[in-house]
């Protein structure tokens, strides 16, 4: 290669890096390549969610778990194979209770029929999470698209980034700040616990043997503890019963999760932890004093941030044909 050739080569490589490294997500990324894509997702959601009212919670949680490990790249959808290794994220402990994989596959197969190889699984997860929460009457948020699918999924990696329900505030803050999310995002996004269920096993130590004391968590409302022990989590090793995180309005995206936190009735230690600093407590109070529209607007801002974590764009990654396997 002569000097000019090397020069051109360098320019091309640099532009190439720029393209793959810095390409941004954009609103309506598929408007030319697959104009009906977003409508197909929305129609599928609107058709199926009314028959599966517990799925929106599962689907937004799937999105959260995807984004926190290797970015929002659909790595959570990969099945274990000889090329991905034995234990993909899907099979790791935090995923034991993640649901909604079949729903994503249903959307993907429609999109593959409409425009093969165009719409990424990572965008499908993100759009489905938003549209299914909207379908329940909850908040909406912007979903710029153009994410690409990752090639790697490693179950061991889920244990670091995904916070445990036993986390204290400083651990939660660290876990979120690693993803570029601040304390306000933490408080606002935890508000997703206004919908859905938790298994007894995620919090039974707070009922039966907190921190090795043999007693309940003193920061958990004692009346509520007695109630949960009598009616829901009747033994310390119950691994099957599910409990509403926001009893009374488990399918409604409202502010009552925050009301419960202040009544010392947040289900997980990680929920209760949000009341342990004056900063986070003030954020909770502000949300409760504001309107539901204000909560939805704050939730939208934080979801838009979460949906951009570590995304692959441009020519990074790929667009999977089958969300469970790399091409
Ligand atoms: C702050 C750290 C968080 C922790 C420690 C945490 C932990 C958990 C745990 C342990 C469960 C119950 C799993 C089970 O026992 O079945 C759960 C459920 C759930 N989480 Fe979180 N979570 C956190 C943040 C989030 C965020 C950011 C979102 C979404 C934006 C979210 C959405 C949900 C939803 C909707 C459910 C109910 C799922 C269902 O009903 O299937 N969580 N979370
Ligand atoms: C991926 O693995 C799950 C088991 O967790 C299985 O139910 C599913 O059929 C597999 N997906 C494909 C496309 O083989
Ligand atoms: C998965 O990640 C762990 C921890 O980072 C590492 O030790 C292991 O080798 C990885 N497994 C595969 C199959 O790459
Ligand atoms: C994967 O796991 C199976 C059994 O669960 C084992 O027989 C096999 O050797 C493992 N493969 C690798 C690459 O670790
Ligand atoms: C929070 O939990 C972490 C990890 O378990 C622990 O190292 C740390 O000391 C705890 N912080 C506080 C303030 O309790
Ligand atoms: C848990 O127990 C340890 C040792 O007994 C103690 O140092 C720690 O403060 C306790 N943590 C909480 C949250 O009560
Ligand atoms: C729960 O644990 C107790 C004692 O630790 C045991 O007697 C009981 O059989 C266990 N129940 C289940 C469902 O595993
Ligand atoms: C939905 C799904 O694939 N869940 C898996 C999570 O991981 C466990 C093993 O740790 C599998 O048994 C589940 O099938």
TrEMBL record:
Location(s), subcellular: Secreted
Binding positions (Ca(2+) 2): 194, 246, 254
InterPro entries membership: Haem_peroxidase (IPR002016), Haem_peroxidase_sf (IPR010255), Peroxidase_pln (IPR000823), Peroxidases_heam-ligand_BS (IPR019793), Secretory_peroxidase (IPR033905)
GO biological process: hydrogen peroxide catabolic process; response to oxidative stress
Domain Plant heme peroxidase family profile: start-end pairs: 24-327
Cofactor(s) annotated in UniProt: Ca(2+); heme b
GO cellular component terms, semicolon-separated: extracellular region
MF (Gene Ontology): heme binding; lactoperoxidase activity; metal ion binding
Keywords tagged on the record: Calcium, Disulfide bond, Glycoprotein, Heme, Hydrogen peroxide, Iron, Metal-binding, Oxidoreductase, Peroxidase, Secreted, Signal
Residues given in the record as Ca(2+) 1 binding sites: 66, 69, 71, 73, 75, 89
Keyword hit for Signal: yes
Active site: residue positions: 65 (proton acceptor)
S-S bonds: 34-115, 67-72, 121-323, 200-233
Major localization listed first in the record, in broad terms: secreted
Residues of the site described as Transition state stabilizer: 61
EC number(s) per entry: 1.11.1.7
Catalytic activity: 2 a phenolic donor + H2O2 = 2 a phenolic radical donor + 2 H2O
This protein's record includes keyword Membrane: no
Residues binding heme b: 193
Residues spanning the signal sequence: 1-23
Annotated residues for binding of substrate: 163
Cofactor note: Binds 2 calcium ions per subunit. Binds 1 heme b (iron(II)-protoporphyrin IX) group per subunit.
Job of this protein: Removal of H(2)O(2), oxidation of toxic reductants, biosynthesis and degradation of lignin, suberization, auxin catabolism, response to environmental stresses such as wounding, pathogen attack and oxidative stress. These functions might be dependent on each isozyme/isoform in each plant tissue.
Protein family per UniProt: Belongs to the peroxidase family. Ascorbate peroxidase subfamily. Belongs to the peroxidase family. Classical plant (class III) peroxidase subfamily.
Protein name according to UniProt: Peroxidase
Organism for this UniProt entry: Daucus carota subsp. sativus
């Amino acid at each position: 290669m002569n000097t000019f050739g090397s020069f051109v080569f360098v320019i091309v490589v640099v532009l190439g890096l720029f393209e793959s490294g810095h390409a941004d997500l954009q609103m309506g990324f598929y408007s030319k390549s697959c104009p009906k894509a977003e409508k197909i997702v929305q129609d599928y959601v609107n058709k199926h969610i009314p028959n599966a009212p517990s799925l929106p919670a599962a689907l937004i949680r799937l999105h959260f778990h995807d984004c926190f490990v290797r970015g929002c790249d659909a790595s959570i959808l990969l099945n274990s194979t000889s090329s991905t290794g034995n234990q993909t994220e899907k099979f790791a402990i935090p995923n034991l209770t993640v649901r909604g994989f079949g729903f994503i596959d249903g959307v993907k197969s429609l999109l593959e029929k409409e425009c093969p190889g165009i719409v990424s699984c990572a965008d499908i997860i993100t759009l489905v999470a938003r549209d299914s929460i909207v379908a329940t009457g909850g908040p909406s948020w912007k979903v710029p698209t153009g994410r690409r699918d990752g090639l790697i999924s490693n179950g061991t990696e889920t244990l670091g980034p995904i916070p445990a329900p036993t986390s204290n505030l400083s651990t939660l803050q660290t876990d979120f700040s690693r993803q570029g999310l601040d304390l306000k995002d933490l408080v606002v996004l935890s508000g997703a616990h206004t919908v859905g269920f938790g298994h007894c096993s995620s919090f039974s130590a707070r009922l039966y043997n907190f921190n090795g004391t043999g007693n309940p968590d003193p920061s958990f409302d004692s009346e509520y503890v007695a109630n949960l022990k009598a009616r829901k989590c009747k033994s310390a090793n119950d691994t099957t019963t599910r409990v509403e995180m926001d009893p009374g309005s488990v399918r409604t995206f409202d502010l009552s999760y925050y009301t419960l936190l202040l009544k010392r009735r947040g289900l997980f230690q990680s929920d209760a932890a949000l009341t342990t600093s004056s900063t986070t407590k003030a954020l909770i109070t502000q949300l409760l004093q504001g309107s539901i529209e204000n909560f939805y607007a704050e939730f939208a801002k934080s979801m838009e941030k979460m949906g951009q974590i570590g995304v692959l764009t441009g020519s990074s990654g790929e667009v999977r044909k089958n969300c469970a396997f790399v091409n």
